[in-house]
Amino acid sequence: MKKYIQELFSLKARYNRKKFLIKKITLVGFYLLILIALAIPYALIDVVNSIQIGPVPPLVWTILLWIKEILKLVAIFSIFIILMGSIFIDVKRLRDLNKSHWLIILWFVPVINLLFFIYIIFFKWTIGPNKYWPDPLEKIIPTN
Question: Average pLDDT, stretch 130-135?
Answer without folding.
Answer: 70
